[in-house]
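Title: [Solved] Cyclodeaminase 3D structure

Original question kept below for reference.
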Amino acid sequence: MQLYHRDAIAAAVHIDRDALAAVEAGFAALGRGEVVQPPILSMAIEESNGEVDVKTAHIRGAERFAIKVSPGFFDNPTLGLPSLNGLMMVFSAKTGLVDAVLFDEGYLTLVRTALAGAIAARHLARENSRRVAVLGAGEQAERQVEALRLVRDIDTVDVWARRREAAEAYAETMRGRGLAVHVHDSVHAACERADIIVTTTPSREPILRARDLPEGVHVTAMGSDSPEKRELDESVLIRADAFVCDTRAQSESNGELKALGGREAPFKVHELGRVIAEGQKLRLSDATITVCDLTGTGVQDTAIAGFALTRLAAD
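Solution (posted by the thread starter after getting help):
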């Protein structure tokens, strides 16, 4: 059994095209029905504003599968600690023996989450998209833009966050990466000229509404991944010309389909894996509005863990 810590993992695995291809292949396998993926085990730790998720999946024919334990404690930044942590245990799919433990402290989740956003944009956003509105100013807000630049020529970022100082600090960081960045005091102003909108918050109330959506925009909602969280108003889902999620079941329990309160969706629900595997073209024109709700799947974790072990073995 191999034991790897975050520094070694971060030195081997980056937000790059190879990692993107590995995660996209996992989504495609899910879309083809080649993945065994149980429901998320999730536990809230309310007194500490925390939660713990356990995710896993097996891609049929793959050499390994991963089980990930992922705590998120959202008051940690006030203590000088990261919000996300965790580890991945990687098992042989032939013997069930432990091949490796990746003490990544949430790093691989950070990477695969960012790459999932880029994959959604690759298949749903306008090809000439250059301007992204980011709602939220945490580390995932930075990584989402980094990953988007793998698939679109992003040159301008509009940012809104609940705390203006956090948005200003984010803007300073992103300007250092060669981007034009504008800080806004309202969600509507941030989204007004966007080609792509990315929501990256732990919000428990909707922050984005249909009136905030410009013509032809693509929305990737990243933050709602538990029953308590929600970023999109119901009007966003209804306004979309195409609504996509990573899995319908997770979107209904943890993601943005919760907005319907158990009612049957008055629109077709697509799953990202099938969009990829079947080459579905959901953007019919530059005016089409697309929305993708990503709650995070076990297949992403198995895909990025297998990729990480390949990279680590090569070093």
